[in-house]
Amino acid sequence: MTAIKFPATCPRELETVADWWRFAISTLTRADVALGQGTDRVEDDAAFLILGALSLPLGNLDEVRGCRLTFDERDQVFALLKRRVLDKMPTAYLLGFTEQMGVRFIVNENVLIPRSYIGELLASQLSPWVETPDEPMRVLDLCTGSGCLAILAADAFPQADVWASDISAAALDVARRNCEMHGLQDDVTLCEGDLFSALHGERFDLILSNPPYVTNESMAALPDEFRHEPALALAAGDDGCNVLVRMFADAPKHLNSGGQLIVDVGHNRDLVEARFPTINFTWLATEGAEAGVFLLTREQLL
User: How many helices (H) and strands (E) does the chain have?
Assistant: First the structure.
């Protein structure tokens, strides 16, 4: 493999945001960086890195293209770009945050970088599946990681009692910081445990989950960028369904009558349907994927 060439010193001839964006796109493209951790295009990843480093709004690239960077700012962007290319560090981890559905979340290597398709569904209050989004309800974000889905759910369902559970204490520390950042520390109940183990009979009207679903084969082939994410949040056995098997076994005990389980399994539809051939899944289309998220009722799981 040819070694990646990267400038030894910060190129001072790059003065404006537009200069650095062009340079970042070229550099990331030549380095063949892996995407998919919040950005799917190299142009967007470059913009995220530069605007995030400069503490500028992420959607304002066109408005600041001509702005000149100070020498210190150029050094900062250069150092981050170097780590992105040479260390294959995801941009969100370099910056310490990302945004999903326009909402900012703190992230580090203890949590998966938020990108679940469920976020898109929550933006429309899970219509038409949730018929009364403004009435009191109980919601659980299972395998919460950074707490992103719990926080988006609290915004989507203002009268909801929202809970979030994760097996990782380090992940829950990040979730706690995110809840505090959004003023939800008294509105989202955090629990540490393996799936439902810390919930002690609590029941919910809606359970959301972006659980581990990566197969062993895919884990072995992961790009370097994805290896910075916690394996605990990714790996799920030969067919990616190990966690789902345990989730399906216990979910009915934690769902109210008519309650719904909504789960993001990425591109694993065929594997999921093969593992559970007797279950009639409802697949929910989003702009990002036609069949990444399924819905099941409590009654279907009994």
Answer: 12, 9
